[in-house]
Amino acid sequence: KDTFDLKYEVWKWCGYSEGKKSWNLYKNGVLVAGISNDNKNKFNVLIRHIESKEKGMASKLIFMLLDNGVVLETGKPNYNSVSTTAYYMNKKIADLIRNNNKYMFTILGKANNSGKEDYEPYKEASTKIDNYHYRFELK
Questions:
Q1: How many CB atoms lie within 10 A of CB 53?
Q2: What are phi and psi of 102, to 5 degrees?
Q3: What is the pLDDT of residues 59-98, one digit of tens each?
Q4: What is the value of pTM for the model shown?
């Protein structure tokens, strides 16, 4: 049986989250997913970036954090953009929460993908009228 551990530590991947604190998920002692925090409070995470090295591990990390009372926000409405991958993950999490008595979500407002319509990782999400930022939390 697999073991999973959460650790709040410095971001373990390169990129624009270097130096940021993040929640990291370890599976059997191996780092499989992380969420960098654009906020000072580790229990109220403003997601800067999500990285996953194994299918399903980003969602697992999100629900493990929610189960531990961590509030997650996907970004600031009308400010942060959402990639197409993140758009589908956000929708999936909201759909899973919609019919669950344990968690809740709040739509914070529209993502700002302005200027990224032709940039491949954001292209499809930029066309979605329901490209929102969310707050996910325990009820």
A1: 14
A2: -90, -35
A3: 999 999 999 999 999 999 999 999 999 999 999 999 999 9
A4: 0.92
